[in-house]
Every structure is written in structure tokens, then in C-alpha cells.
Amino acid sequence: MKMSGPLTRNVSQISMGMMIAMLVVMMCPAMLSLAWAEKSSEQAKWRERVVLSAGQEVQGDYFAFGPHVEISGTVHGDVYAAGAEVLVDGVVDGDLIVAGGEVRVSGEVTQNVRIAGGMVTLSGKIHRNATIAGGDVHLADSSHLKGSAVIGAGNLLLGGSIDGNVRIGAGNVTLSNKVDGDLVVVAAAIRLTSKASVGRNVRYWSDDEPSIDEGAVILGTVTKREIPDAFNKGEEFRRGLAGMKLVAAMVSFASTLLLGLLLLRIYPVFTPKVASMIQERPWAVLGAGGVLSFGIPLLILLCMVSVLGIPIGLMLAAMYVVTLYLGRVFVVLWLGQRLLRLVSGSSSAAWAFVTGLVTYFILSLVPFVGGLITMATIATGLGAILMTKKELVVRLRGDQVV
Fold first, then answer.
1. Where in 263-384 does DSSP place strands (E)?
2. What's the rounded Cα separation, in Å, for the pair 250 and 16?
């Protein structure tokens, strides 16, 4: 039996959602603890609740980032929100894109929904499609999705009605309401309660048979599928590899977006200084980063040779990996600033970062050229961070602060 192209894409979509959810769950505590590292007025603002109150209206896209985000008003555009806790109980006349530790959507969204979080609760009305990833995902009885859904979760409770097709990758799945289209499930445990209704076919991948309560309605067929051996070779293998690359790119994009916006909020002075270092001394930064990219791993290996050096090597390795990942943020900010200056002459740091990030990821997907751009970005970011820190330390020593 051969896995079809659409099914390969479905599995890739589910994997992407689950990976994004895990990443968000791991990142949120680390990012929130980072906020205490720098005592400043900007940090005080960061800890405040971000609220769009009921009755307020926003014309155009709306961005909200903070530990607690509440959107109770009306947005005539897309909404981008991230935080430890995100509540959307207003009206979004556009797309809703949310990442957070706990996400609750009880309002109305006229376009698509994209959610990644530790705990996700959807109890409102969505007029088009939904992509949801989370540890625990609950579609309440009051929820209504007029389009299709792709969901990745540890535990999933489908209590709302869905007019289109549903594709799921999860540990445990319970369906207790209506799905008008096909139901495609990859899960360890599958249950359809007596209230469940599937308008078309049910296809599933699981070691155990699904539990279907008496009273559940399935108008089509129920088919168990096996992942074929052919998936590991030939055309299917190439499709799977392409899907994995796309998943990795999307996870990287989402994490870099969240991390960059957080750094701009938490370190509003240091972040632009690193970007300015790239602007003022590009070749020096690239050269220093290239040398350090090879030199630091060699130093780590030398430390790991002896028993006493192992702890030092492990700490250096952790710091090195974190610095490499952070470095992209500053390069992306610099790129966005350059591009927007060509158009408007000035822009906010957040818009510059988003513009640079989109441009960078488009370029990074170009065969061969994308690999070179990624390597140059990593080296430039590493060099810029360390040169900026060195300059800062020299200045502090001159002022006899350290």
C-alpha cells in the first residue's frame, strides 16, 4: 500500500504543529525568567497586562506581546499575540496567530486561526480553517469551526462542531460532537462517544482499535492504515525529507519571531547596539564570527578530553549554542532596518525585525544559496554579540565600573 501525496502533507502539517507546541512550552518559562535579568522601566512595562478592552476597535493589524494578553475588543485586521496567558474573547476580522503557555479563544474570528500553546481552549466561532498545536487541546461544545482543522496535541477533546475535514496527530483523542467531513487520525488511543458524528470516512493509524460508543454515527467507512515500508525509500522518502525540512523551517521561524520580539522588549538598548555593530563594521564582525565558529568548538573538545575539564566544556557548549541561536536575531534586525530605510527612511524596531525575518527565511529556503546565507548569518551574529560585549566591557573598565 502506498502513501499518497496529500497524506504525506497531512502528516507533515501535524508534525509541524506538535513541534511548534513543544517548542513554545519549553520556551515560555525560560523567556519569562529572562525578564528578571534586567531591572529597567522597560521591564516594568513588560510585566504589565496587555489589554484591548471591550468596546475598543483597531483598524488594521494588531500586535500584542506580554505575560498576560487580553483581546476583548474588535480588530479589523490580523492579530498576532504571544504570552504566558492569552485570552481572545473579542472579534477578530482577519486571521488570528497566537503562541502562549495557556491560550483561550472564546470570541469570533472571521478568517483562519493558528494557535500553538501548552494548554489551548477554543470555545468561540471560527469562520474558516484552524491549525492548532498544544499539550492539552480542548474544543468546547460551544465552539464552531466552519472550515477544516489540522490539530497536533498530547491530549485532544473535540467537543465542538466542525463543518470540514479534520486531521489529527495526538496521544489521546476523544470526539464528542459533529465532524461533517473526513476524520483522519494518527493517535495512540481514539474514542468516539455516543454524541460523535462523522459525515464521511474515518481513517486512522493506531496500534489499538478505536473505541466507538453505541450511538456514535459514521456515515462513511472506517479504515485502519499501516505506514508502508515504501515511505523509507524512493519518492516517498524524498517527500518525507522535504516535509521534515519544511517543519524545521516553520519551527525555526516561529521561535525566532517570539525570541526576537522578546529581546526587543527586554533589552531595548543592547539589541539595537549589536545591530549597529553589524552596520558599522560588517567585515570585522563576519571575520571574528567565522574564526570563533570554528575556534570555540575546538576549545570545547580540548576541555572534554580531561575529566576536570568536562564541566567547563559542557558549560561552554551550552553557552555557544545559545549564542549562535541568539545571533540570528541581531542579523535579522539589521537586515530589516536596511530594507525599510530604502523604502521609508525610518521604522520601529519591531517592524524592522519582522521584515528582516521574513526576508531571511525566504532567502534561506533557496537551494545552495540558502545554506551560505545561513552560515554567514550565524557567523555574523556570533561576531557581533561578542564584539559588542567586548566594547561594553572596555568602556565599563575605562569608567572604573568593573
1. none
2. 7
